[in-house]
Each structure stands twice: as structure tokens, then as C-alpha cells.
Amino acid sequence: MSSRHLFATMACVIALGAFPQAARAAKPLTTVASVDLQRYQGVWHQLALYPNRFQKACVSNTRAQYTILPGGSIQVINQCRTLDGKEMLAVGQARPSAEAQLSGGQLTPPQLQVRFAPAWLAWLPMVWGNYWVIQLAADYRYVVVGEPSREYLWVLARSTALSDADWAAITTRLREQGYDPARLVREVH
Predict the structure, then answer these.
(1) If 0-12 CB within 10 Å is exposed, 13-18 middle and 19+ buried, where does residue 154 land?
(2) How many Cα atoms sit within 13 Å of 39 on the Cβ side?
(3) Quick check: 188 and 61 in contact, CB under 8 A?
(4) DSSP per residue over 15-76, as a string?
(5) Left, alpha or beta for 175 (phi > 0: left; psi -120 to 50: alpha)?
(6) Predicted local confidence at residue 159, as pLDDT
(7) Residues 189, 185: Cα–Cα separation, whole Å
(8) Is 112 helix (H, G, I), strand (E, B) or coil?
(9) pLDDT classification of 26: cutoffs 50, 70, 90
């Protein structure tokens, strides 16, 4: 076999081997069926995330508090500790996406939009980011939040640690959803 044929054969094998991963990543992202917002509200500790520019200053103890407001929106308070030991605080708002229905405290599908920009900018679509609940433990001990482009990802929990079994379940499901668990950076608490 000539080197040209060998190269072409190897390229086909590599392309065919990569196809299932590419097909899986191209599938639309799915959420859990629904979320009970009463059970969801409260404090969540960030245990891991895909690094992003807006959390660059946070080095430890990142947490989020969700509070349901009259009218169905949710107040979001994010806090973290910076490298110099100071606490950083960001206050935002979440609302159900256009595709989501809120009925009896259940959000179906659990797709929210979140903004941390000032309220007077809320009319601008670009200040709202997608916040989709893509994994949720039945007892609400952990949640995995992503968004359709798969550029952002957060693992949150009610406590500052999860069991090895929980992490295994989370990473297995992330692979199935087209995420790369190797990109996750664990949080220090």
C-alpha cells in the first residue's frame, strides 16, 4: 500500500471514529423534565465550572443564593472570595425563558435567563444569559447548569463536597450531553 493510500485510510478511520462524538455534541442540549422552584431556592455552593471571564477574580468559596420574588422572577446573589481574601458580590435576576412554563411552582422545562447588568438595561436581549438545569439529583443535593452552546457549565451543591459516586454520575451524564468533563475546574472551599 502506498503512503498516499495509507494516509487516506488512516484519515477515514480517524474521521469515522470521531463521528459519534461530533454527532453527540451536535445534538440539542436537553434539560431535566422540571424543577420545583421552592426546593431550588436557597444557597448552592459552586463545586466546579468551565472557567469563564466573568468569574476570573473568584478563587474560592463561590456560592449562589436564589430567592423567588413576587411575580415569578428570582433574585440571584453570587458571592466568592478573591485572591486577596475579599468577598466579591454580584446581584442579578433570573426569569423563565420564553420556552419555559411556570405552573404551581414547577418550571418546565427548567430554562431560565439570568442577567447581572443593571435593571435599566434589562430590555436588551444581550444582557440575559441562558441558565438551563441539565442534571438535578432527586433530593436536590446537586445540580448541573449549562446552556445550549456548551461554552459554560457549573456544578453546584447544597454542601461543599459530593461523593465519588455523585461525581461519576455527573461526568458520565456530561459526556452523554456533549460536554467535556476534563474542562471542569474544581472549586476550593
Answers:
(1) buried
(2) 15
(3) yes
(4) HHHHHHHHHHHHSPP---S-EEHHHH-EEEEEEEE---GGGTTEEEEEEEEEEE-TTS-EEE
(5) alpha
(6) 98
(7) 13
(8) strand
(9) low
Query: pTM (2 decimals)?
Result: 0.85
pLDDT band at residue 6 using 50, 70 and 90 as cut-offs: very low
How many helices, marked H, and strands, marked E, lie in the chain? Answer: 3, 12
Residues 6+ apart with CB under 8 A from 160: 45, 47, 189
C-alpha to C-alpha distances, 70 to 67, 74, 95, 105, 131, nearest whole angstrom: 10, 9, 12, 12, 20
Find the mean pLDDT for residues 44-49: 98
Unique residue bearing C-alpha cell 436564589: 66
| C-alpha cell read off for 42 | 436557597
- Write out pLDDT tens, residues 81-131: 999 999 999 999 999 999 999 999 999 999 999 999 999 999 999 999 999
Residue 163's CB: how many other CB atoms inside 10 A? Answer: 10
